[in-house]
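Need residues for this backbone.
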């Protein structure tokens, strides 16, 4: 005979009502025991806070994001899944070690040659060392004046200073520092598209953008993407966006960086207009703040740099609007909110920093959010070096393309 099926009841009975009463009684006993153990644990943790900190550190959920694996390679190509911060830190340490070895070798050679130097030369060298130390301290102070650390630093924000040299050399126009302070975008659709309202809604999301519909009329000229980009480049536009459609719904967005590319192809899912969001607000014409979260790999840094080029450099803080592009498991969640600072309610907790401790000076302040829309989920599908697939030439015309086999390992991500 096989193993007997276990039962949660202490006594088997054929009476249905009796079984129900036994089940209710056992469930009540289990809940009572849980409640008593919870209060008992709370008393122990109040006496010894280290017990609670140990329990919290031990009960970290094992999510897929925490199980993320990286490629163990020293490569900063678009196909490599490496953490740019850790890779550049490793390279910097290796360079410092090599410089220290060279300096030690040079010091040994100088010590053997300079044994007969007099005291005046030694004093002069000391003065030169003091001057070099003062110059280094002055540079450090100037760097600190330029930007101080935030009171509540984000643990997921993207550091675009980690751009590898290979990406800067491959896409010089995208990583150039002399890009326009106020970018202009031309928004269009596929031929005979019905997404006129959605395209105009995109124009409210990107400042200084213009929507031009495309027509396939028999007497009209059917302009290609390269002709549209040439037209836009001659008129001061920095970006061209092409909204794709299927069954009268947006399914894709092509973003072309002018004048020569690259081109990013995104798929769109979960498109929700602002007016369909519960409790939504109405956006204003102020330049929003931009949040780029969790772009860590070389491909992620390149994508974040593209998004950064779509909004003006200097936001208008009086508008209190913020656009968030949050990358999680290679899906980019697009949201737009308006925030307001208000007094903390009695039932709310204070704001805490990345270390879990309360921030001093803002104990009685909380931030409220109101979503403005539109809401969408993007997924990067392809990166072309030039203007579209037809406008890219050479062996490296296709820089990166998503393939189904990339998601076979669920703990490896591309962005």
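Answer:
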């Amino acid at each position: 005979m096989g193993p007997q099926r276990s039962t949660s009841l202490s006594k088997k009975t054929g009476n249905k009502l009796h079984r129900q009463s036994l089940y209710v009684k056992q469930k009540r006993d289990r809940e009572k025991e849980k409640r008593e153990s919870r209060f008992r644990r709370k008393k122990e943790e109040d006496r010894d806070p280290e017990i609670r900190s140990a329990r919290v550190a031990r009960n970290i959920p094992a999510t897929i994001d925490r199980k993320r694996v990286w490629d163990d390679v020293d490569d900063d190509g678009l196909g490599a899944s490496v953490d740019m911060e850790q890779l550049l830190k490793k390279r910097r340490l290796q360079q410092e070690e090599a410089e220290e070895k060279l300096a030690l070798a040079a010091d040994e050679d100088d010590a053997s040659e300079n044994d007969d130097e007099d005291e005046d030369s030694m004093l002069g060298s000391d003065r030169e060392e003091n001057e070099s130390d003062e110059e280094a301290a002055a540079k450090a102070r100037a760097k600190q004046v330029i930007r101080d650390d935030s009171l509540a630093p984000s643990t997921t924000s993207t550091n675009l200073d980690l751009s590898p040299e290979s990406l800067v050399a491959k896409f010089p126009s995208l990583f150039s520092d002399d890009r326009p302070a106020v970018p202009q975008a031309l928004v269009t659709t596929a031929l005979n598209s019905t997404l006129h309202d959605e395209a105009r809604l995109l124009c409210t999301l990107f400042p200084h953008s213009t929507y031009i519909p495309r027509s396939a009329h028999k007497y009209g000229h059917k302009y290609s993407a390269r002709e549209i980009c040439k037209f836009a480049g001659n008129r001061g536009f920095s970006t061209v966006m092409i909204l794709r459609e299927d069954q009268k719904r947006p399914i894709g967005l092509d973003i072309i960086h002018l004048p020569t590319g690259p081109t990013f192809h995104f798929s769109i899912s979960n498109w929700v207009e602002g007016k369909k969001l519960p409790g939504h607000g109405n956006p204003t014409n102020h330049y929003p703040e931009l949040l780029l979260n969790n772009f860590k790999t070389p491909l992620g840094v390149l994508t974040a740099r593209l998004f950064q080029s779509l909004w003006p450099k200097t936001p208008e803080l009086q508008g209190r609007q913020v656009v968030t592009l949050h990358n999680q498991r290679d899906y980019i969640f697009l949201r737009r909110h308006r925030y307001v600072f208000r007094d903390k309610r009695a039932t709310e907790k204070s704001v805490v920093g990345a270390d879990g401790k309360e921030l001093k000076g803002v104990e009685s302040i909380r931030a409220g959010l109101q979503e403005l829309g539109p809401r969408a989920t993007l997924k990067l599908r392809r990166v072309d070096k030039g203007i579209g697939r037809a406008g890219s030439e050479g062996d490296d015309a296709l820089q990166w393309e998503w393939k189904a086999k990339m998601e076979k390992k669920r703990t490896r991500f591309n962005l």
